[in-house]
Design a protein that fits this description.
Blueprint lengths: L2 H10 L17 E2 L5 E5 L4 H6 L6 H12 L8 E4 L13 H18 L3 E5 L1 H7 L5 H4 L4 E3 L7 E6 L2 H4 L3 H12 L1 H12 L3
Parallel strand pairs: 2-3, 2-4, 4-6
Antiparallel strand pairs: 1-3, 5-6
The chain binds uracil and iron/sulfur cluster.
Uracil (URA) binds next to helix 3.
Length: 194
Amino acid sequence: MTLTEDIINRINVCKKCPLHKGRTHSVPGDGSYNAEIMFIGEGPGRDEDLQGKPFVGAAGKLLIELIKSIGLSREDVFIANVVKCRPPNNRDPLPEEIAACWPYLDEQVKIIKPLLVVTLGRHSMGRFLPGLKISEVHGQPKSAKSAWNERQAYLPLYHPAVALYDPRKKVTLFEDFEKIPLILKQVKKEKNVL
Ligand code: URA
Ligand code: SF4
């Protein structure tokens, strides 16, 4: 069994927080384990819970459209969430649920070692970059120390679900996404990958 299969198996039987009670499927996350970019959402919604796959509902369609707008597909990146099981009625995940689920995401980031972690929405940003206000920092690359890397590059963005009801946020999301290729280029330059 590979390391990644092991994580998926553990998430599929996990009962570390009460969210396991309401799930149809856990949603471990998917995409390329060689991805340069990881997108981290909040938690599975109804469609994700039914399919066991992240971002497959309405917000997911927009996310994939955004990813395509920079010339990539969902197979090129890795998509995961801060909690792997659906909160009832899509309520916000509780701090204790996020804390219980964190070790899985931590392991995933350590295995994938992405050049850039794109956080989607407040909860995802708060886990990696605490104390920031999304309305002030969206679209601005941040660098923070991490356990797996001296420095890890982050890009906090609005959650695509918000953009479904707010056309201005949708425009902002596309504008912020446009910055990703250049940010990635700069991160590579700093790491001498190019
Ligand atoms: N919203 C999220 O935050 N994650 C998903 O997987 C789907 C919708
Ligand atoms: Fe386990 Fe995370 Fe699901 Fe809670 S949300 S039961 S910690 S996999």
